[in-house]
Structures are given as structure tokens and as C-alpha cells.
Amino acid sequence: MALKHVMINDIISDHAARMQNLKKYYPFFVLNETTFSQYKEGKYGFLDMGYITMASLRFLINENNFHEKDITYEEYESFMSELLRRDFGLDEPQEEERQLVLHIFDKLKNDGRAFEFKFYNPDTKSSQIARVKLIDSRIENGQVLYTITAEGIEFYLDTKEVKDESKINVSQLLLEKMITSNNFKGGIDVVKRINAQVISLKAEKENVLKLLGMDIFEGNKAYTEYMDTIAKWFSEEQKLFAKNKALVDKAIKKAEFENTQQASGSYDEKDSHGGAKLLRSKALEEISSLENELKKTIYNHSQLIAETVELSQMADKIIGQAKLRKLRPVFDFRQSLINIMKQDNPALMAHVVMPLFAPRIEKTFSIKSIDNMLTLKSEDKATGEKVEKASLDLDFKYEDEILDEKISHNFAMLFVQLLDQLKKWNKLSLKEFNGILEIKFTKDIYENRDYYAFLVHLAGKREYSMKQMLAKQDTMLEEMVISHMTEDEKSEFENMEFDLSFGTEEIELGALGDNKEASPDKFVVTDMYFERRQG
Length: 535
Known about the structure:
The protein is an alpha+beta fold. Helix content is 61%, strand content 10%.
């Protein structure tokens, strides 16, 4: 009886929340069923509005998040016209096509109104309406700009259509919209989702290692795909983490200020009823929970970077050992037969048997050669030593010149890496730059003296301009960098300018693996900040 009471209570009390969760799916099915049924007497009934809806949402996510800009209707019209012609073979006059695209866009934004989803709430014994919009709009400088809503992003994420490397980035866009609209409870759920995705990437690393141990070829393929996935979202999500953390800190300060105002009696009269105070207290609690979840995710993310570096080192070792095992002095006929059977191609047997039927080449020694050996007269007279005039080797280099060449090459490589990252991020700290160098070159880079010499020379100036460096080199570092940069690199970064400043945090380097104990090989450098100047 008690279990039945619990079940009935769950049905009644949870129904409204379940309907609110379902509302984000409602517009998709409405659009899919009604968009073309009445338009032009069903002339365009062959178009799939479900596909068009998902493509439109992906386009908005790409422009709003990845390109960080709102779109105009003209941009959407260009995208949708290309989609209709490419994917459905639509061939209509330009004016007819423009009317069709306008009809589709009006349906997607529901003529500027929210989609209304009606349901019965047994808890309050009344009908309620849940409202949801996929596209939002605003006017700026006399122009209408469009963005995807939080519900639109959440619906798209639930369909599992976003690429693996984009899931965390899109989730962080959703988190930003949740925080901006003060929906901190929804933000907690999004952060938990991000955290689960980061943890799943950490678990995938173990699967890649296992596969490398069982099948080196499939393992190497999985390893390459995994590293590509990590590299694609690493630079973007680092910036989004910092942005969302700043939004949470701002929300905490605002909530604490309101509580202070209420305690001093300078807040509105509704506080006397306790309602506003309770709401602010609940909001502060939700913001704190959101901050804790975000800190947990950032920690898991840093662990993921460390484990990715470890995976790179272990994969190189495993692949290297596999290459050595492959260098065997014998031909494995059994393994060759297995490979031919797997490919189901008997013609490959020719490569195995043809060498066995090759013509036999016999080598003989002529009798005449023996006679020539017996009758050969040797020269008894002494021959003097032939002295040849040595020619001057213009390419000869002394050891110190070779060392200078090596140092110059390393300086140029590090400087180009710094320019490349600033081109992507615009702003970078030395700590973040070190993390990227670890992924590319492993922690062995901290044992290279050229790395520390590069930092010392780089700190000699507070600003760098590639145009000025190409015209005239003021320092030894600039001379080394320009002399060893390729023409493509000079052309790519010729307009780059950045400023250098120092932080206060000390970064410990040189401790390999997870060993955190102090050792003579550990080095300490002061953090730096590099910021690109926008021309």
C-alpha cells in the first residue's frame, strides 16, 4: 500500500516537470507536420522539414558559437537556398525560391511568437501552457539579428547530432545562455553534462591504450582520431571555461550585494514578507552549487590534458616497439596466408610463390682467368705517394657554428608556435602555452636549455611586431627567428603584433609524470601573459 502511495505521488508531483522537459521537442514535430501541408497547395510536400529544421539549428549554432556572431536574414537565406538546391534538387525561379525560404524561416520562428504546449497539471488540477522558442531576435543599429535560444541548443544536443569534438563547446554556449538568463538550476545540469563528456574522453583514453596493446594498427588509428578530437576543441573550450567562470563570479557578487542591501534595510518593501529574501537566498545557493560543479569540471579538464600527454608518450613507446618487432629476418608464410584470406584475394598468392619460381642464376669462374692470374707480372719498382691538392670545403662549419644553428632553429620554432597560438586565442599565458608545448613535444622540452634561454631573450622586450622585425632586427633573438623562419611562415604572420607582460605566479617545471616531490631537476619560471594587438 505504501509503495502504491509513493507511485501515485510521483505520477502527480513529477508530471509538470516532465512536461516542461518535453516541451523542447514540441516545435520539431509541429514544424515537421504542418509546414508545407497548406503552402502552395502542397506543392513542396516532398521537402523534409525535419531535416531543414536540424540543419537550420546547426547553422545558427555554428555562427552564434563558433564564429561568435548573430546572423541576419540575408545570411540565413543564402544558406537555406544552397541547401534546397543541393539536397533536394530544387530548381525554381529566384523570386519563388525566396518566398519559399521566407515561409520556412517564418515557420521556424513561429512569426515571432513562442510555440505553446498545453498540458494538464494534476498537482494544481488546472491546465497549463509551456512556451518554447527555437530562434530569438533583437534589433541593433536598425538591423534585425537572430540567435538560437537555450531550448534550441538543448534540443539539438539531445538529438546527438553534434560532432564529438563540438559537444563541450556547444554545451558551454548553452551554459552561457543559462547564466545570462539567471537559470542557475538549469546551468548546473548543463555543467554536469559537460563534466560527463570530459570524463568520457578520459575513459576513452584507456580504451585507446587497450586497443594499442591488442592491435597496433587499429590502435594507432584510434589514437590518431582521439588526438585529433582533443586538438579540435582544446583551444576553444579553454576560452569558454574562463568566460563562464567570470559570469558565475559576477552573479555571486550581485547576489551577495543584494543580501547586504537587504540586511542594511535599504532593499524594497517586499523583503518584509520574507519572499524576496528567500528567493535571493535560494539563488545564491544555486549559484554556489553551479560554481562548485564548474570548478570540478575545470579540474577534470586539466587532468584530461595531463593524461593526453601521458597517452602520447606511451603510444610512441608502444608503436616504436611494434616497429622493432616487425623487423624480423624471416618471412612469415602463415601470417601472410592469414592476411590474404582476410582480404579474400587469391591473386595476392603470386607475391608469395613467384620468387620461388624465379630463374636460377649460376656463377662460374673461367679457366682463362686462372691463366691470366699466373702470367700477371707485378711492378717491382716502388711507387711514390701521390699527393693531391686538397680543395677548400666552403660548407665546413665549426662545432660552435653548428650549435648556434641549432639554437636559432629552436628559437624560431618556439616563436612560430607562440604566434600560431596567439592567432587562434588572441590572449595566452605562459602556463597555457606550456600545456600546448607539452602536448606537441612532451615534457622533455623542459630538459632543453634552449627553452629557458628563449624565455630570457623573449622577456627582453615588452612588445613585438613582425613587420618591424622583418624590416630590422633589434635583438639577437629577432635575428635568429627571422633567419630561420620559412617564407610561408613570414607571409602568414607578417601582420602579427603582441604585447608581453609578467604575472606573479611561479610555475614549477621539470617534474615528470605524477611525481610532485621536489627534485634537483625541477625549475621555476615566472608566469607571462601574451596579448595580440588587433590591427
